Amino acid sequence: MVASTKGLIRENELGQFKKRKFKNAMLMAASILATTIGLFFLVWILFTLLERGLGSMSMDLVTKMTPPPGSDGGLLNAIVGSLLMIGVSTLIAAPVGVIAGIYLAEYGKKSKLANTIRFINDILLSAPSIVVGLFIYTVIVATFQQFSAWAGSLALAIIAMPIIVRTTENMLLLVPTEMREAAYGMGASQRKTVFTVSLVAARNGILTGILLAIARISGETAPLLFTALNNQFWNLNMSQPMANLPVVIFQYAMSPYENWQGIAWAGAVLITLAVLTLNIATRIIFRQSKG
User: Fold this and answer.
1) Rg of the chain over all Cα atoms, to the nearest angstrom
2) 121 with 164: CB under 8 angstroms?
3) Stretch 239-266: mean pLDDT, rounded?
4) What's the pTM value of the predicted model, to 2 decimals?
5) Transmembrane residues, as ranges (predicted)?
6) Among 100, 112, 211, 227, which lies 20 to 30 A Cα-Cα from 249?
7) Measured distance CA(223)–CA(20) in Å, rounded
């Protein structure tokens, strides 16, 4: 009787093991299939981009201005405009985002105000960029009756800020509590502990978040269409419309002129290489922070 019961238990365990093994194999197959589909489209996009863009890559691309239809030219003014607006938006978003992240992780924690800030930050994080562009258009462009690089930079800063806030908070939360307690035990104040212990330990992770935010806003087109617009000429005046890579690529790709389309593809390659470089740098820095 006992031997029969043990046999039934073993058969039942063997059956459950086979079911788990079958489910594991199915999930593994589904994961491999999903990864293959994702990689297939990624390789297809990169191949198309390089096939059409590399032919138009030349020194003219980074030394000449955006040309009229049918003429030779490059993207110099658009590249400089993009770098200028990304730089200004980073200068706006990084301090605000880091300070907000410090408050959430070190001071606010589970308070009502901190939870409200997290809720608003999550909404901003998932908000479509075109909505941000329309908001800045209504508040700034329509008010001053002027498209400007300042408006474009502010729109990009609003998109970058929630990424920096989230990353800063998460990186600070990863700092072991024992390190803070050791600082308190030596008589350090909370402010000194935050700035000399927590921030120092989390600096690489915070820098990673800033780089990820820069990579995110580098290719944004929709908010710039409503704010900075475009400029055919060389312009460093932030109060005027300014050329930028995403809008130039959009307008040139939609045009019927073959030389403009070639420049648009080359510009897309430039942005892709810039974002790829930023992502590689981010991974290297993050790996160093984990080590």
Assistant:
1) 26
2) no
3) 92
4) 0.86
5) 25-47, 75-103, 123-144, 150-173, 194-215, 263-286
6) 211
7) 49
